[in-house]
Amino acid sequence: MTKLPILLIGAGGHARACIDVIEYESRFSVAGLVGLPDEVGTQLLGYPVLGTDTDLPALLRKCSHAFVAVGQIKTPERRIRIFTVLEQHRCSFPVIVSPYAYVSPHASLGHGTIVMHGAVVNAGAVVGCNCIINTRALVEHSATVGDHCHISTGAILNGDVKIGEGSFVGSGSVIKERVSLGKCCVVGMGISVRHDLKDHASLPTHNFVERKK
User: Which CATH number fits domain 95-198: 2.30.170.40, 3.30.200.20, 2.40.420.20, 2.160.10.10?
Assistant: First the structure.
């Protein structure tokens, strides 16, 4: 089976995780990456960083499949901006699913979304476009995740949860069943969310160990 070439936009830590999933899924071959000026000419996991954002038009003429491989924590703005530029170039945005993840045939994933190793998306769940369902995250039955969201490592969205567009749910956090988060909310690591949150709400991580000086 011939693998289709795909261009990754981003050359940092999240790009490493994306490459690993893409390699195991075996549908695409990474043609190269788009990174920062000081990353051009380097390699990431053996794949070349071919250029910067200014080189995108020329690179996309050679490779019609593209993927946003930039991470998201505090704000989705950079991922949204890149996604919008790629849409303007009429790129093909595949859905990438690790063979070590489980996505129910009764669930829905929007284009440009990635489901990482060990994640579960259960029956009736709807995940929007350009989302990250990170390693070992759980999106339970009938939950809804809006476009441009990052559900981080080990996070749990219980049944009928609704996550607004552009929101971030931190590692190990738990959203109670039927709770809704508005647009562009930020839930820190290890938070238990039991009540609805309005747009742009922020729940910073409150349990931490200060490093010794």
Answer: 2.160.10.10
